[in-house]
Amino acid sequence: MTAEKMPVLSPVPTYKTRQIEAGRMLFTRPITFMLGVATLEQLPTEDKVEICFAGRSNVGKSSLINALCSRKDLARTSNTPGRTQQLNFFDLDGAFNLVDLPGYGFAQAPKDVVRNWQGLIRFYLRGRVTLRRVFVLIDSRHGFMGADLEMMKMLDETGVSYQVVLTKADKLKKGQMDKRIAEVVTALKKHPAALNQIFATSSEKNTGIAELRAEVASLL
User: Fold this and answer.
1) Rounded-to-integer distance, Cα 32 and Cα 34, Å
2) In a domain, 90, yes or no
3) Which CATH number does the domain housing residue 55 bear?
4) What is the number of structural domains in the chain?
5) Are 53 and 137 in contact, with CB atoms under 8 Å apart?
6) Contact assessment for residue 197 and residue 154, using Cβ atoms and an 8 Å cutoff
């Protein structure tokens, strides 16, 4: 059953208890690595809903995925930007595929390799009929940067629905975080494919993880 959000005034969505529980239960199910995709020919069959996570290199994407799934090492984390060099597909017990995109914006890799990643990402985002939502991760300490805006422009052009997730929220004081949220929500008004509600998360403190799980559950 599709979860219904409570009416909210805040740009950060809130959920009923049953929605939070549905999200929690969804992510207690086993999740396994399916495959890493480096070429178009390796893309798996479009046979279930896909939820995608995208973000700049070193934005904390792997840490967020691990926190969502209550796993320490499902998605590999690294202090080296650009470590993820493939589209990594994970199967959550047949319910949906979680897709971890290569970090964009900077990578410790040859330029031709980076171009191949970019082409693969564009093809995936433009042509995947089972793609239900892209969560675009933004470092809350910095807000939108040039590479983020390029990704969002591509999503706007292709009409792929996306939602911003602020990471590392524990690194800002409350007043700073409120200001950042307001800035992001205002900026999103210029992006037609962006949803106007965002998430403020911290993988380290588990902030916003339950709400993000609830949102994913609502998409199924």
Assistant:
1) 6
2) yes
3) 3.40.50.300
4) 1
5) yes
6) no
* Closest C-alpha to 121, from 164, 154, 92, 145: 154
Pairwise CA distance, residues 205 & 190, whole Å: 31
Rounded Cα–Cα distance for residues 194 and 172 (Å): 24
Alpha-carbon torsion (107, 111, 112, 118), positive or negative: positive
**Residue 73 or residue 6, greater confidence:** 73
Task: State residue 6's pLDDT score.
Answer: 38
Reference 203, options 194, 195, 213; nearest CA is 213
Supply the range of the domain harboring residue 205. Answer: 17-218
Structural domain includes residue 153: yes
pLDDT (tens digit, 9 = 90+) per residue, 58-101? 899 999 999 999 998 887 644 444 445 789 999 999 999 999 99
